[in-house]
Specification:
With 285 residues, this protein is an alpha/beta fold. Helix content is 43%, strand content 18%.
Length: 285
């Protein structure tokens, strides 16, 4: 019989948030694959769990190389437990490769549900949570970051991002540039920890706040794009939407057609707005 792969959620801050099954799984697994074995040691000590199986590291640097070894153990009948530093494996953490490989071998994959920074931040943000999309970490390079943001500039669902504290100010400034300074957002810092903080406000204000420096684990929640009727879209907004689509790779003709369809107005109206803006840029002040 083949084994079973268990993905286990771990606390994102407060150790008492650990799911009750976690200690039992840590003790009973044949193999425990951990993103950081030192953190695993602290976790097991806090939970009073004593792993009896083999412990191996499984992180971004060795994920590709170690996956075949873990799959071999699963094929041989082992119960393999995968834990990351915080939250659920595979969600912006190691795990996807192993899950995909296990599924390909028809190996059972299950989970021990646990804390989630994504859902916790959503719940605390004060923004709509009925529909959302998780975008993970944005690219480090400024140009790539702007390009990624432009791809979702018109996304109506609430957006959730992870971000490193030393890049937060640049990310919020880029968001304000692409989404608009008045788009509502929430920066959730150190969730469930002693210095937990949720800073809410328009992106422009949050960008200025973050410029002073922010520490800790960060999750950013951004309000989705507002729905606008045809009467609310002025020429500047029509031009902005066309440019967003062009920067995402669409040809101008297709971008104009798409914006016109969204606004429910003739393509000629959008075309005229784009031409007028271009002429104004050429003539200068």
């Amino acid at each position: 019989m083949t084994g079973i792969l268990v993905l286990a959620g771990t606390p994102i801050g407060d150790i008492s948030d650990a799911p009750p099954r976690l200690a039992a799984e840590l003790t009973g697994a044949d193999v425990v694959a951990a993103e950081d074995t030192r953190r695993l040691r602290r976790l097991t000590q806090s939970l009073g769990a004593q792993p009896t199986g083999r412990i191996v590291s499984y992180f971004e640097g060795n994920e590709a190389a170690r996956t075949p070894e873990l799959v071999e153990a699963l094929v041989g009948g082992a119960r393999v437990l995968l834990v990351t530093d915080a939250g659920m494996p595979s969600v912006s953490d190691p795990g996807y490769r192993l899950v995909a490989a296990a599924v390909e071998k028809d190996i059972k994959v299950t989970a021990v549900p646990g804390p989630s920074a994504v859902l916790t931040a959503l719940a605390l943000s004060g923004l709509p949570v009925d529909r959302f999309c998780f975008e993970g970490f944005l690219p480090r390079k400024a140009g790539e970051r702007l390009s990624r943001l432009r791809e979702v500039a018109e996304e109506r669902r609430t957006l959730v991002y992870f971000e490193a504290p030393h890049r937060l100010d640049d990310t919020l400034a880029a968001m304000a540039e692409v989404f608009g300074t008045e788009r509502r957002a929430a920066v959730c810092r150190e969730l469930t920890k002693t210095y937990e903080e949720v800073k809410r406000g328009p992106l422009g204000e949050l960008a200025a706040w973050a410029a002073e420096g922010v520490r800790g684990e960060i999750t950013v929640v951004v309000e989705g794009a507002p729905e606008k009727g045809a009467g609310e879209l002025d020429a500047d907004e029509l031009v902005r939407r066309v440019r967003v689509r062009e920067e995402a790779g669409e040809r101008r003709k297709e971008a104009i057609a798409a914006v016109a369809a969204e606004a429910g107005i003739p393509k000629r109206d959008v075309f005229d707005a784009v031409v007028a803006a271009k002429n104004a840029e050429r003539s200068g002040p």
